[in-house]
Design brief:
Pfam families: Rieske. This protein has about 120 residues and is mostly beta strands. It contains no helices and ten strands.
Length: about 120
């Protein structure tokens, strides 16, 4: 699995919640993963409103979702995004979406991020 970076385990993320990860150990969560049962959705931790300049989506550590867990919320300006697609539903970035990351979940629950040429040198 040389093209994969281990993030953790499925049980590290509560069902219906999201958690930030720092796969390149830069001291900030550069992506976050949302858990829906055994399904995981991963997004770059940057709002498209700011041109993916690194504006963190979390309004507090590991707080990426609204209270109901139905939408991703940008802590910087309150934009709301669809949890399934990352599409902006409300806010200053209509027609834009969060950038998805490719994840792999093993049969034993280990969670990995696919390392691509775009994220090899921590471009997000």
């Amino acid at each position: 699995m040389s093209n994969w970076i281990k993030l953790g385990h499925l049980n590290d993320i509560d069902d219906g919640c999201a958690r930030g990860f720092d796969p390149h150990q830069l001291g900030r969560d550069s992506l976050f993963v949302l858990r829906k049962g055994d399904r995981l959705l991963g997004y770059r931790n940057a709002c498209p409103h700011r041109g993916y300049e690194g504006t963190s989506m979390a309004w507090r550590k590991d707080r990426f979702l609204n209270k109901a867990g139905t939408r991703i919320i940008c802590g910087a300006h309150g934009a709301q995004f669809d949890t399934e697609t990352g599409e902006c539903l409300i806010g200053p970035c209509p027609g834009q979406s969060l950038e998805k990351v490719i994840l792999r979940l093993t049969e034993t629950g280990e969670l990995y991020l696919q390392q691509t040429p775009d994220n090899e040198q921590e471009q997000y």
